[in-house]
Design a protein that fits this description.
The complex is a heterotrimer.
Chain A: E1 6-10, H1 28-43, E2 49-53, E3 68-71, H2 77-87, E4 92-98, H3 99-105, H4 107-115, E5 121-126, H5 156-159, H6 165-170, E6 175-182, E7 186-190, E8 193-197, H7 199-217, E9 220-226, H8 230-233, H9 237-251, E10 255-259
Parallel strand pairs in A: 2-3, 2-4, 4-5, 5-9, 6-9
Antiparallel strand pairs in A: 6-10, 7-8
Helix pairs in contact in A: 1-7, 3-4
Chain B: E1 8-12, H1 22-26, E2 32-34, E3 46-48, H2 62-66, E4 72-78
Antiparallel strand pairs in B: 1-4, 2-3
Chain C: E1 6-9, H1 10-20, E2 25-28, H2 36-43, E3 55-58, H3 62-74, E4 79-84, H4 85-90, H5 92-101, E5 105-111, H6 127-133, E6 142-144, H7 149-166, E7 169-175, H8 176-180, E8 182-185, E9 212-213, H9 220-240, E10 244-247, E11 254-257, H10 260-275, E12 280-285, E13 287-289, H11 293-301, E14 305-310, H12 316-324, E15 330-334, H13 343-357
Parallel strand pairs in C: 2-3, 2-4, 4-5, 5-7, 6-7, 11-12, 11-14, 14-15
Antiparallel strand pairs in C: 1-8, 6-13, 10-12
Helix pairs in contact in C: 1-2, 1-7, 3-5, 10-13, 11-12
Classes of the chains: A alpha/beta, B alpha+beta, C alpha/beta.
């Protein structure tokens, strides 16, 4: 009998460590970690990449990415990234931030980093809630959404309407790449019945790669990734994915908001 | 007649699986399902069978990309 | 006049002092009375006389500035920010993080009257905040207090050196008076001590394992150990880095203890009192942390009396009392709100104390 040989088609990524993650079951942070790891490996930039960890569910990301890390204070990641990039422009610097970190306490740092065309890459994981602290309202929480600080549903008269970070940055001159994608798998009907596709993930993967390419070109890159928080939304994993793809995308439409270098046309 | 060797294999690190079922629902060929075993965290980890409910594994890689825990650790194809 | 002498404001002296000390990057938000520091550094950006000076940015807020300094310092560079009291409050979070991450950085606080918005007058308002730590947690800043414009020119060298030696933020604590005062300054030749940052700086994990600059440690035992190492550093600094100046203290019966602008005025009072035959001296701490406690204890054991003079309600006073212990006469003369004491007022206070003492 002939010996069968196998080659590894998809396997261990250099940029990802062996540590098991602490994320909840089905959480898109885990998926994003793999997408970023794959992009860093494919572009061959691991040895000059520095991650700025932010405060939120991803605060322990320094255990998962095999590169240098600086753990920033809440909201300050873009400023820390900018400070390091200005003295070491050869480094590739990125942050992963939640909706509270980037769109609430850190909004000034985010906007000014974009305004100054700082060549860094920011990933905003938008799950319309404060996950790590137990489910309070986020700037991106939907009108009427129940959270622990909006137990009767978000009242936009008191709290204002949802903050659209991609739309906000699309109006900032210095932002070179602003894209919103969804990390939630989508359910579609087909001749086989209801199936789930990962088209969203593949779009997100491309956006992640572009975000690093834009930094290499000298521009500020921002990708907003719609995600779930099944635990704090009090839904099952698949119900949460449906909520994103049916309700959340209506308030936060997916798409390319700015592409100064035209990376998506390539 | 010799048994047909599987064209592809999906390796699963059972201790990492949190039974989110994303791989189960996205696999186009139905090669994945939650097992009856329990891992140390109390989850029923996903398990792979080359012949799935809808067909054979084609090493499409969907499960690899969708797994948030890197439990789907490696996909091999016959050379 | 020596060829190297220039006539500068205190704030300008700090800026040039930092440049001469090998400043790499400066980030700050303007605030009176320290704005001449960023203005001078903006003007000198690109001056080939300072090849190490690579980056200047006016940040959008005090918070943004200190975090940019953290980023630059993480890369192993000499990074600095300057501010005044209300801005210093805003930076406390960043300093707490930097101390736990063991980052070398230089911060300058040109104090003004507080609390709140206060006014633009001189006050030694931030002694507590600087030496006791205004940010959360167990940490210390190394604190240097200049009293002359010449000292403001030279202390940035000491500041960067100590920051890198101990991998800790260092503070130069000035005040609105000395910040605006103009005096002659010289910049002697100087080669900064080189410190190897390759063991910790985040410059890309090429050919080495990743460096993680982090203050989060969820394992309590590990955090206890990590902070213990930092505590050891502080013990070392307390033994080795105390700096102070003694003026006519040997035979003094009463010693005035003052730092910064208060010490300048007190020195004048000491001279006046000496000319009238009174045995008065001045002890001037230059490092407010580590505090020259052993030196003060030694003076106290010689039976001397002390008068602490500060532009506040008695902040260093507490450290003096702690240093000298029980049974020692420690009096206080303070002015605050932007008001500066005169030599005559200090003289008068000393005389009244001498009368009481007899």
């Amino acid at each position: 009998m002939t010996q069968v040989a196998y080659t590894v088609k998809l396997g261990k990524l250099d940029s990802i460590t062996e540590a098991p993650t602490h994320y909840c079951a089905g959480c898109e942070h885990g998926i994003l970690t793999r997408l970023i790891g794959a992009a860093i490996d494919d572009l061959g930039i691991r040895e000059k990449t520095v991650m700025i960890d932010s405060v939120g569910c991803s605060v322990l990301a320094f255990n998962y990415f095999n590169c240098d890390h600086i753990v920033a204070a809440h909201g300050r990641a873009p400023a820390v990234a900018a400070g390091l990039k200005r003295v070491h422009p050869e480094l590739m610097i990125f942050s992963v931030q939640g909706d509270g970190d980037a769109a609430s306490i850190g909004l000034l740092e985010l906007i000014y980093a974009a305004k100054r065309s700082t060549p860094i890459t920011i990933f905003l994981v938008n799950n319309a809630i404060y996950g790590m602290t137990g489910g309070q309202m986020a700037p991106t929480t939907l009108e009427g959404q129940v959270t622990t600080t909006t137990p009767f549903g978000r009242d936009v008269h008191m709290t204002g309407t949802e903050l659209d970070a991609s739309k906000l940055l699309s109006g900032i001159d210095g932002a070179a790449y602003v894209k919103r994608v969804s990390l939630a798998i989508q359910e579609i009907s087909s001749h086989r019945g209801s199936v789930y596709t990962i088209k969203n993930l593949l779009d997100a993967k491309k956006a992640v790669e572009n975000a690093f390419k834009v930094q290499a070109l000298g521009g500020f890159a921002f990708v907003e990734l719609l995600s779930t928080c099944s635990i704090n939304w009090k839904m099952s994993v698949l119900e949460a994915k449906r909520f994103v793809n049916e309700k959340v995308v209506k308030k936060f439409p997916l798409g390319l908001y700015r592409d100064t270098y035209g990376v998506e046309k390539q | 007649m010799a048994a047909v060797q599987p064209r592809a294999n999906v390796a699963i690190l059972e201790e990492r699986c949190k039974a989110c079922e994303l791989c189960v629902v996205t696999c186009p060929q139905g090669n994945l399902k939650l097992s009856t075993r329990l891992n140390h965290a109390g989850f029923h980890p996903a398990e792979f069978s080359y012949r799935g409910t809808k067909g054979e594994c084609t090493a499409c890689g969907v499960c690899y990309w969708v797994c948030p825990d890197f439990a789907i650790s490696e996909i091999k194809v016959k050379t | 006049m020596g060829k190297n002498r220039v006539y500068l404001k205190g704030n300008e002296a700090i800026a040039y002092g930092a440049l001469e000390a090998g400043l790499n990057a400066y980030f700050a938000y303007p605030i009176t009375p320290s704005s001449e520091i960023p203005e001078t550094l903006a003007k000198e950006f690109g001056n080939k006389k300072y090849p190490e000076y690579k980056f200047f940015l006016q940040a959008a807020s005090e918070l943004e500035a200190i975090n940019m300094v953290i980023g630059a310092a993480s890369g192993g560079t000499r990074a600095m920010t300057a501010t005044s009291s209300p801005g210093f409050s805003l930076k406390q979070e960043g300093l707490s993080y930097a101390a736990c991450m063991e980052l070398p950085l230089l911060i300058v606080d040109i104090c003004r009257a507080g609390p709140g918005l206060g006014n633009l007058g001189p006050e030694q308002s931030d002694y507590f905040q600087g030496t006791k730590g205004g940010g959360h947690g167990n940490y210390r800043l190394i604190v240097l207090a200049p009293a002359t414009v010449q000292e403001m020119a030279l202390l940035p060298r000491v500041g960067f050196d100590l920051a890198f030696k101990y991998r800790n933020p260092t503070l130069i604590l000035g005040d609105a008076f000395t910040g605006q005062l103009k005096e002659d300054v010289e910049f002697p030749e100087f080669t900064p001590q080189h410190y190897d940052v390759s063991a910790w700086a985040t410059t890309g994990a090429k050919g080495r394992s990743p460096h993680i600059l982090n203050s989060l440690e969820l394992d309590f035992q590990k955090h206890f150990k990590h902070l213990g190492k930092i505590y050891e550093k502080y013990q070392q600094a307390q033994e080795k880095e105390v700096r102070f100046e003694e003026y006519h203290t040997e035979d003094a019966e009463t010693v005035i203890i003052a730092f910064g602008i208060a010490s300048r005025i007190a020195k004048g009072a000491v001279n006046k009192l000496r000319s009238k035959g009174m045995k008065i001296g001045l002890f001037r701490p230059i490092t407010l942390w580590p505090f020259p406690a052993p030196q003060l204890k030694a003076l106290a054991s010689q039976g001397k009396r002390f008068l602490v003079v500060e532009l506040n309600m008695g902040q260093m006073l507490e450290d003096v009392k702690l240093a000298v212990g029980d049974g020692v006469t420690v009096d206080f003369f303070g002015k605050w709100g932007g008001v500066v004491p005169t030599e005559a007022e200090i003289e008068g206070k000393v005389r009244r104390l001498e009368v009481i003492a007899i």
